[in-house]
Design a protein that fits this description.
Layout: H1 2-11, H2 30-42, E1 44-48, E2 59-60, E3 63-64, H3 72-75, H4 80-83, H5 97-106, E4 111-117, H6 144-155, E5 158-163, H7 178-181, H8 196-211, E6 220-223, H9 231-244, E7 249-250, E8 261-262, E9 277-281, H10 299-310, E10 315-320, H11 330-346, E11 363-365, E12 379-381, E13 385-390, E14 393-398, E15 406-407, E16 415-420, E17 426-427, E18 429-432, E19 435-438, E20 450-456
Parallel strand pairs: 1-4, 1-10, 4-5, 5-6, 6-7, 8-9, 9-10
Antiparallel strand pairs: 2-3, 11-12, 13-14, 14-20, 15-19, 16-17, 16-20, 18-19
Helix pairs in contact: 5-6, 5-11, 8-9, 10-11
Bound molecules: ligand H79.
């Protein structure tokens, strides 16, 4: 099954060549496709943003620092000498790696990616390269990543590491800390003013080597914000990853070509594409814990985004931001587990499933020429249903009850039968003058999302 799906994906011509597709498709790279096999099937992962920023949780000395929780040092311009002191308070006594992995598993997530070092420069793992790390600088003294890696190994969960390769606000040579160390570049935006390569060679590159040495097989390294990352600098990281763990994936934000495309944060494309891609996204409005952020996405919103992404050929990397005590916020846990229960009954429509053979269901561009906030043609999404695929099967997921009989988009294949995925209840099909319709039994089995499987002759849809 895996093999044949991959063959279809690799062989398929690129669907939905949207604005993101600027270069001609490259010849397929068999080694890369092999590395990507598990990733293409996994579809749903857990992102974990955890670091010293969980202590201030969006405030500095009683002042709110607006924006993302993990950006508190930047947003409130906290000097290194002040921010560093957080390390001596970091003691997450409630941290239990097995419980986190269990949550990911209950949620139906197939991989975990945790911040090993965010822009603040603090390593959440034992590092010989810099004493600014969880073992050497905190009363906790435990290697949180080692514990998580061991727990993942016990649960058969893949584990990857986020590593901020470019921004490091703790180091004079790292990018991003303008308040202690001045601007990264001269006003021309090109002339570099910091000893950036000294930082890369002295900290970032050796720390990535450490991550690839002491933590078992690393599923992927998630680089971010490639400021000043020339292709040559990016390649140095790629060479480290490839030489140390050839199966480790590189995300799309290194600064040189990775294994898959990363969309913008919380951005879901409006069309399908055949290349491997991933949307990193939040469960509320922040990545790192903020005590004032209770704007939780509902299970229904999360389920929709997941199926929407899968129906466009991508993966959903959904974040949780644990507290300074090491606890994943209760609402995030509950919402993820609710979606996990839905996946227990409906996961066949998600894991290993291919993209929509149609596309009209995604919505349409505004016919009045309106522009979105980025100045692109405004896309007006439809959210009633999505479709994912496996050989011989369409999985139609409905997020609201179709008001009229639902017409299956025209395909040349002979349609064999239809049934509800969760309870296998048959669904009666009507075919009249080449149009096949069915009436969704009411009330919908699961008002959040109900999947109808349509089986057809042959493996691939012909239109
Ligand atoms: O790790 C998460 C973010 O911290 C990181 N990417 C995800 C996965 C990220 N780094 N940079 N950005 C996202 C873009 C930053 C945007 C903002 Fe700001 C940060 C908006 C407000 C604070 C930078 C500072 C831009 C304006 C002020």
């Amino acid at each position: 099954m895996r093999k044949s799906l991959l063959a279809i994906l690799v062989g398929a011509s690129l669907v939905g060549t949207g604005a993101a597709q600027t270069t001609a498709p490259k010849p397929p790279d068999p080694a890369k496709e092999k590395r990507l096999e598990w990733f293409r099937d996994a579809k749903y992962g857990m992102f974990i943003h955890w670091g010293l920023y969980a202590i201030p949780a969006g405030e500095w000395q009683g002042r709110r620092c607006l924006g993302l929780g993990e950006w508190v040092m930047n947003r409130c311009q906290v000097p290194v000498k002040e921010y560093e002191k957080l390390a001596s308070q970091f003691n997450p006594i409630k941290y239990n790696a097995d419980q986190w992995v269990q949550l990911a598993q209950d949620a139906g997530m197939k991989y975990i990616v945790i911040t090993s070092k965010h822009h603040d420069g603090f390593a959440m793992f034992k590092s010989k390269v810099s004493p600014y790390n969880i073992v050497d600088a905190t009363p906790f003294k435990r290697d949180a990543l080692k514990e998580l890696a061991d727990a993942c190994a016990r649960h058969n969960m893949r584990l990857g590491f986020y590593y901020s390769q470019s921004q490091d606000w703790h180091e004079p040579g790292g990018a991003g800390n303008t308040w202690d160390f001045g601007p990264d570049t001269a006003p021309d935006g090109k002339t570099e003013l910091k000893k950036y390569d000294d930082y890369l060679r002295g900290k970032a590159e050796p720390q990535v080597r450490e991550l690839l040495t002491g933590y078992g097989p690393v599923a992927l390294i998630w680089f971010d914000t490639p400021r000043m990352m020339t292709p040559e600098r990016g390649q140095r990281f790629a060479d480290i990853v490839r030489s140390m763990q050839p199966n480790t994936l590189i995300d799309g934000r290194l600064g040189t070509e990775g294994d898959y495309r990363s969309t913008g944060d919380n951005v879901i494309p409006s069309e399908a594409s055949a290349e491997a891609w991933e949307t990193p996204a939040t469960t509320n409005d922040t990545w790192g814990f903020r005590k004032d952020d209770t704007n939780w996405k509902s299970p229904g919103q999360i389920a929709f985004k997941l199926v929407d992404i899968v129906s466009k050929g991508g993966n959903y990397l959904l974040n949780v931001g644990p507290t300074a005590e090491g606890v994943i916020p209760q609402m995030a846990q509950e919402n993820l587990r609710t979606v996990g229960r839905w996946l227990k009954a409906n996961g066949e429509a998600v894991y290993g499933a291919g993209a929509s053979p149609f596309g009209d269901e995604f919505g349409e561009y505004s016919s009045r020429g309106a522009k979105d906030v980025r100045g692109q043609k405004l896309f007006l999404p439809d959210t009633e249903w999505r479709v994912t695929t496996k050989p011989g099967k369409l999985y139609l997921t409905f997020f609201s009850e179709p008001r009229a009989p639902f017409e299956i988009p025209a395909i040349k294949n002979h349609i064999l039968r239809a049934y509800r995925l969760a309870d296998k209840a048959p669904i009666e099909l009507k075919t009249e003058s080449g149009r096949t319709t069915f009436a969704m039994p009411r009330p919908m089995l699961d008002p959040m999302a109900t999947v109808v499987v349509v089986e057809y002759e042959g493996d691939v849809v012909r239109r």
